[in-house]
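Appendix B, Record 12. Input sequence as logged:
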Amino acid sequence: MAISEIEKEDFSAETNQEDELFLHKTIVADKGQTLLRIDKFLIDRLPNASRNRIQNAIDNHSILVNDKPTKANYRVRPLDAISVFLPNPPRNDEILPENIPLDIIYEDHDLLLVNKKPGMVVHPAYGNWNGTLVNALVHHFEHLPTSKNGKIRPGLVHRIDKDTSGLLIIAKTEHAMTHLAAQFFHHTIERTYFALIWGIPKVLKGTIKTYLGRSLLDRRITANYDDSEKGKIAITHYEVLQTFDVVSLIKCNLETGRTHQIRAHMKYLGHPIFSDATYGGDKILKGTQSGKYKLFIQQCFETIPRQSLHAKTLGFIHPTTKKTMQFDSELPEDFKNVLQKFEKFVDEGK
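Logged structural output:
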């Protein structure tokens, strides 16, 4: 299926797949490998590697030997299987700083939390080279007293889609980036999203587990598969919080962070996210197709002309203090307004 230039922009601009942000590989030592410290062994085999970077990764259990954490003085032996999970260094030398307002929830020496507005692309990509969150972050960091003449640059450890709102965590140092990346790798980051979906699921609280990969029919879309060779494992826990006859407010907790994960999983469940044009949620899926109801739904689409999805909470271990931190964000105005419309719709008995 041919992909238009506009379609290419849509998919490349809207991605939250963590695999694109990290280097993840396994290196098996040769049969004749002589005993060699693991940092020296890896420096010649990893791009942009340094002894300090490898040490950080070892300290954060992002380098395993034969599936077990290792130490910096470990000496690689023949046929050792070394698994490496490192954040790719940010490529911000080409990114121009832009004075774009940011809703900063928290900031310290190591990290920064931003409440991203819907419609903002996270990282420059095809068709979206300017006006992104990273352009704004580069400007913000250049004007910080601790920026060391602009050398500190934002480190993305996860992403959310252009038209999804909510919390994003940014690493400001290599140590913080490695530590946070390890938490994503080990699925210890707490991520809760709120979504408005079509219909009411038969099971009000459950888990969706599929393999997600690009659709073979439309590469803008993430498809669900039951074959590990066609996609990567994706796990979403969901719970219905409130129902409004034809739609439901749910919360989702992510174990993995695949491209369009919640959007694809809700489609798989048979309850696409309300107003999600990519996954079929932008048309009437419950109720009649005419009259006042049709006009009401159209007004709801106009109230939130994007997928009704918000990254509400983030919980993690601080890279330096090692304390548990948790942050919550309010639903944006368009999300709150469409909920109010459906509450009134139910109260008035349609």
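The chain has three domains: 19-87, 90-188, 191-311+332-347.
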